[in-house]
Design brief:
about 110 residues; GMP Synthetase, Chain A, domain 3; 3-stranded mixed sheet; two-stranded antiparallel sheet; 2 helices; 5 strands; globular
Length: about 110
């Protein structure tokens, strides 16, 4: 795997193409990507969903995997869906425009 600092911008760019179909916003701006880091000579991506019982969790996992598949410099990768810390509305990037039903207002 190439130096993570060299390929991180490409990884983030690709992950921004993964859209949460319920909210119509990419998973990076929603704050669903928790970590992108090298681990044991492979890339590890930890992400979450807006709710623990999200019916789209498998779909999102598949879309994250698809986004990473052909990035030059990534050999092996591991994608982990994590539920801690809990996702909160405050994790959404400021100024995001929703194309579907927005989440509840920030506290």
């Amino acid at each position: 795997m190439k130096d993570i600092h060299q390929i991180r911008p490409k990884i983030v760019e690709r992950l921004r193409e993964v859209i949460d179909p319920e909210l119509g916003v990419n998973i990076v701006d929603l704050g669903l990507i928790y970590q992108i880091f090298p681990e044991d000579d492979k890339l590890r991506v930890d992400f979450t969903t807006t709710t623990p019982g999200c019916p789209l969790r498998r779909f999102l996992h598949q879309q994250v995997e698809k986004a990473l598949q052909d990035i030059e410099g990534i050999g092996e990768y591991e994608i982990n869906m994590v539920m801690k810390p809990d996702w909160k509305v405050e994790m959404i990037k400021e100024g995001v425009v929703f194309f579907a039903v927005p989440p509840p207002p920030r506290k």
